[in-house]
Description:
Rossmann fold; Phenylalanyl-tRNA Synthetase, Chain B, domain 1; 2 domains; seven-stranded mixed beta sheet; three-stranded antiparallel beta sheet; 37% helix; binds S-adenosylmethionine
Amino acid sequence: MDDYPKTEVREGLVSVIVPDLTKYVVGNRPEPAHAPVFYNPRMEVNRSLSIAIINGYTSYLNKSGITVCEPLSGTGVRAVRYAKELNDVSRVVANDISEKAYELIRLNVSKNGLSDVVTAYKDDANNILLRVAREGGCDIVDIDPFGSPQPFIENSLRAVKDGGLLCVTATDVGVLAGKYPLKCVRRYGSLPQKFPFRFEVGIRILIYLIARYALSMDYGIQPLVSFLDGHYYRVCALVIKDRAYAVETLRNLGYAYYRPRTLARGFIQGFPLPDTVRLRLAGPLWIGRLWDPEFITNYLVRNARDYFSDRAKELIELIRDESLAPNVPYALTTEVSRDLGRELPVKDVINIIGKLGYQVSRSHFHIKGFRTDADLARVKDVIMEISK
Ligand SMILES: C[S@@+](CC[C@H](N)C(=O)[O-])C[C@H]1O[C@@H](n2cnc3c(N)ncnc32)[C@H](O)[C@@H]1O
């Protein structure tokens, strides 16, 4: 086997061999992308949540003997955790284009005694997805690339079974959230905006991309869970291979608007854009729900495990609270304390809105974020009034 510094780490219920990141430091921080095979310990949160989501999905839809395809596996840590920690899993397809990654996947599979469940390949991800599609598809397709998942979405939709779950990571949050608008237009076919809720605009553009590819094949999608965790977005969506469902999905496409003067915000249904609109818009994007609240409350939360990191457990709690909130873009405490001269803490703003009788919850998208059906101009006035 190729020689480079390696180490053994424990994550979830498995032990795996990964590159020794202390030997790949940029500035004074380990840089996973500089190692011969990619391994980012921070992505434990992504992997643990995915285990809770897939286990939740299995019981939500009464599935058994589920099959998983992970065509961008790196060290294989995710594929190995899936084989070990998913309930009732029958087969995991792991793959990476890199020879060094392929060797590590095989090593980690055999080290954990999972050779009867995980099959490893060394191929281009799109070839593997097409091969899986030809062989009848998988229940779960998990795309976890560097940067944008765009090159893999179309074939992932082919590889996932009808009623299956497509899980997608995107680490190009800057592009999706409006830092490089023209790059977003080129890559995603959608215009982002630097609205106060730009991180929500970003994830809705990502879901829009999945929906667009699905619609072109007469499939529909429905997100079960969507979230932002630092440098990446994650979306897990049901794929329904049915034309009537595709028509339903089309109704969930539109645009987001924001009026800085009144703080008004919301969505406009319509794709392509209705020609009567004269607002500054972001989109096209997904305007439907980001979560299935029943799934989150009754299935995701129950599948959190004690051995997950504190951050993974905290994120599940935040998502649970937010999934019950109204489907309007989140707002920031800075917006409603604009005329106050000082910023109110988010818990005080939530308290005030709750007392006014509106629905309100924290938003995990931003440390100062909250989601409410209240008129924000009124909230701003009430804050001024009680602070006199
Ligand atoms: C972000 S890493 C995957 C991390 C892994 N899923 C995890 O949870 O640790 C992306 C991987 O995709 C591989 N890759 C990049 N382009 C590829 C392609 N076209 N086909 C297959 N693998 C590819 C890279 O070698 C890299 O190992």
